[in-house]
Amino acid sequence: MLKTSLKGLLQGKLEGKTFKHYIYLVRDRETVFYVGKSLDPVRRIYEHLGWDRGEKEDKSELGRLIIQNLPKSLHWKIELLKLRDCEFEVAKIMVKFTQSSEGMLIEDFIEEIEKYRLECEINLDGAMRWAETAFILFYHPCLNKQRNYFPSPVPTRYLSIKKNKISDG
């Protein structure tokens, strides 16, 4: 797993280090704003900000929240994970959704990890989707809409809108 601040990411501190890191989280302490998957998560975060390849594009909801909370959002954490880093969460979530009320058995947990490892070998996109979904179901990020049945609310400290001072003329 790689961790840096948004500022560190924008300064290029992860450049050349993100090979096979396909899952990303954007968080501030205990608040997870977003979980995503991408073959190039650094570029994807730039896309959220509307800065893809130097072209100005529309910002995503995540990008707007980051911009709205500048400069504090520069200290938010970016976590990049390889698919192997996600095994525990994937297995835990898969067992939870396939088990009866009897609870999780260690054999079931190991079986789910083995299924996930096989998926990682034969179907990268499917494995990425499993990992992203597991992290969404585990963290309930504020801004994920798909497969997030109980999203956490964005804490009010992040919702204050900056107001421009308008002078009376």
Would you kindly provide a written description of the structure presented here, covering whatever features stand out?
This protein is α+β, with helices and mostly antiparallel strands and 169 residues long. The protein starts with a strand and ends in a 30-residue tail after the last helix. It is built from 6 helices and 4 strands. The protein has one domain.
Please write out the topology.
Layout: E1 2-5, H1 6-10, E2 21-28, E3 31-37, H2 41-48, H3 61-68, E4 77-82, H4 87-98, H5 106-122, H6 124-139
Indicate the mean pLDDT: 87
Overall 3D shape: globular
Number of DSSP-assigned strands: 4
What structural class do helix, strand and pairing data support? Answer: alpha+beta
C-alpha Rg (nearest Å): 18 Å
Q: How much β-strand is present in the residues?
A: 5-15%
- Strand order across the largest sheet: 1-4-2-3
Q: For the terminal residues, how far apart are their CA atoms?
A: 54 Å
Short description:
This protein has 169 residues and is α+β, with helices and mostly antiparallel strands.
